[in-house]
Amino acid sequence: MKEKTMKALVKTAKGPGLVELQEVPVPRIGDNEVLIEVKAAGICGTDLHIYHDEFPYWPPVILGHEFAGTIAAVGKNVRGWKPGDRVVGEPHTLACGRCWLCRTGNRQLCPEKRSPGWGIDGCFAPYMRFPEPELLHRLPDNLTLEEATLVEPMANVVTDVLERGRVEAGDMVAVIGPGPIGLLAAMAAKAAGAAMVMLVGTDADESLRLPVARKIRSIDYVLNVQKENVVAFGLDVSGGRGVDVVVEASGSASGIALGIELLRKLGRFTAIGLTGKGEIAFPYDPAMFKALTFIFNLSTSFTSWETAIRLLSSGKIETAPLITHRGSLDRWPELFSALEEKKGIKGVFLP
Ligand SMILES: [Zn+2]
Ligand SMILES: [Zn+2]
Questions:
Q1: What is the pLDDT of residues 199-234, one digit of tens each?
Q2: pTM here?
Q3: Ligand 2: distance of its center to the CA of 92 in Å?
Q4: CA 118 from chain center: how many Å?
Q5: CATH superfamily assigned to domain 165-296
Q6: What's the gap in Å between 290 CA and the centre of ligand 1?
Q7: Among the bound ligands, the one closest to the CA of 92
Q8: I need a surface site. Which of 28, 120, 150, 287 has the fewest CB within 10 A?
């Protein structure tokens, strides 16, 4: 019998570029695995980093880890899932289950983890083999599969801003960087009870990201650091004390320095995303004089996925303005460059 094939977006080998749409076999599943029909797949900064050879990966590999879809088939040992179920999934596949991190509930940080999209085949394809059904999460009916591609970035925000950054009712929160993560972080902080949320961008964000942010109801203030005195504003709005929590989502040395200036003494700084550099200038003594708590973050906790789904489903997060680009897989060059040039916020493939 002839093998069924599909078109998938593949990183073919090590090196910059080397991404192409290829005809590949539709995956077969083992007894403990599920086959997912991908209905929507979010394009993440990680995919762009892999395109440019700036993130670890094991080629040839189908890109993409932010999937939402329906279960197409289940292996004979799989319990609790059936064809047609609407799902998203934590990308923490192939964690060893034995190491200290796995045994303490932190499989997302296991050194043996190989996620879809870089370690094993991902979701930029019509079908995807998912080896660990226990990592799947069921979607409520009121969340569309396109919106559900935001669950993974939202889970990052929940882990980093709510669980680890501990935003509390009444907090004054400044978010630096108005990309998809910054926008979600600002809305999540407000949903968690922040009294005030301000979002900071630059001239480069004026064409799209800041105008979108200004339309989102739960973001109180949107500022351009190249046009306004953001530190003076932050002091003023917090009665001279400084803000309680800074969420850094720009990955720039200047954004990090600004965050430290904005915080009150004993404030909390929670950082999302990489700078792309091994070392950066850091205002160490000013942070010390304020006795700040600085939180580094990587990946998502189990609990953050459930919270992210509930938050998105609650209607407290405006998802519509965030997905600016959508298209079929063959339009990948156009979608990748729109996101890189900040002409888009979030792009979604509809395979
Ligand atoms: Zn992602
Ligand atoms: Zn492990």
A1: 999 999 999 999 999 999 999 999 999 999 999 999
A2: 0.95
A3: 10
A4: 15
A5: NAD(P)-binding Rossmann-like Domain (3.40.50.720)
A6: 33
A7: 2
A8: 28
